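Bumping with the actual sequence this time:
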Amino acid sequence: MAIITLVLICIIAFLHLYFLYLEMFAWTTRGPKVFRQIPKELFEPTKVLAANQGLYNGFLAAGLIWSLFIDDVAWQQHVAVFFLSCVAVAGIYGALSASRKIFFIQALPALVTILLIFVL
């Protein structure tokens, strides 16, 4: 894969590791500062739900990181496209159900990276 594609995969994986941290370990401390649209009193009662969501973000990050260590180029691309597609679908769903901002933070980078995998 082209170096720009690998760099974008690293950035997307890092973002999902940050989401994991935020949702699993900092939901009640940092969460209210990041998710200002959610009333502060809802963070404690939704802590377990957020942690579950964070775990899924961790799986996405793990899959993207795994793709970076695959030697076979075709297999590497297939694994990367699969996990980037999962990120894109989650981002599109989040944009439709929660906030349009999620599309630009999560789905668009994944879609651009998928496009670059096929173009470069």
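The tokens above came from a reply further down the thread. The radius of gyration is 15 Å.
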